[in-house]
Amino acid sequence: MLLRSLLRVADDLVQHVFVSYVREDSEAVDRLCEVLTEAGISYWRDRTSLAPGDAWKAKIRKAIRSGSLVFLACFSDNSRAKAKSYMNEELTLAVEEFRQMPPGRTWLIPVRLDDGLIPKWDLGAGRTFDDYNYVDFFGQQVPAQSVSLAVTISRIMGNQGSDPVVARAAISDSAETVSLSSQIQDPGQERQLFDVLRRAADQLLELPALVADVVVDGTPQVIEAEFTVRRQRVEEAARPLLKLTANLAYWGRPSTDRYLTNLIPQLAPSPRRDGTAHLLNLLRAPGSLLFHCAGVAMCAAQRDEAVGKLLGEDLRVDDPYAGELPAVASLHADLLYPDRDANRALHDYLADVMRNELTLSDRTFEQAWARWNYLTAVACSCLRTAGAHTYPPRAYLQITSDGPGDPYVTVGKGLRREIAQQGEPAPAACRRMLPRQCRSPRHCG
Q: What is the pTM of this model?
């Protein structure tokens, strides 16, 4: 108890940035807090800084009045639409505090999460919120604005914040993602991007682990060890290809989607030869990784039409055991991970590749993974109902927790609600995202 009390006192004494927002903007604020963390800046927000049993109003009041060197007020259509909110209460306390500060002090910093107007809150002495410079934390200006915000806060916090040079270095990587997204959305640069993707795919297919002999003599332990080594080399070599794929799938349009779907069968060739089963399956693993990486990225971007094309019957691959099959029925996670929980292993690998590449929050990635996982399982169910061969369906969307910090996702509820809201007949969500055989919500439950 004494240690807990001391830790809580120490936490209260830490100078920090107070982040005020409405719950509907949690995802955007997650990304904002990731920027602060990368820049070495301490922050206080209700979701992470309140412990069970805290008197939350008193804690928030104390966090604003005693410990905050900067107050970030995050505005959006969600916050503007609320006549009453806890954010408004926080802003009232902040205004009271600000009025007691000397003129010219930088403490209140408005943050726009969309292109709406900053509200005209009365700050006293004829000042309002919209008189002050604000930060635009949306669209293509996020990297530059993030650096500017981190540098400003670091200067205000003095030695307690991060060095401005370190702040710039920590955030600069995100500018590359924005630059790449601009290239993807420029039709004039399409051919150049496709050439880069093709070269990355060719390099992966030429990997020694994928061209080595697939006949391995020895005990099961020897064969398993050889497979593990080759799989690890494939995982590492596939990263450049998957990073570009994630961006193309997230930011892309129909022409880039067509290129990706044409590439998937080429990366999943059917090995018409004898050999060890696991090593033969590994030859098709690049296609499986590309397929799932693109699907999760499209779900993260809510590109339902593109997801539907990935899951549809027209995207087919040559399966060595069942002939030609829809990709969703053949490119399962077991190709890479037959020796453990395949779904969880694929989740962990893609999370490591994609989160930083697309600057996705943990919550956004988990929701995208859950949506994709659920849809692939439903698509396989639809195909089996129509009499097609499929491999055992993937587990419906639940990721078990290995520790208190791991995200826990319950699966399918949001999609089922979306489909139910579409109504009969032939819900649009099914038409967009599932094979032609799936025409009823009963397949999606």
A: 0.57
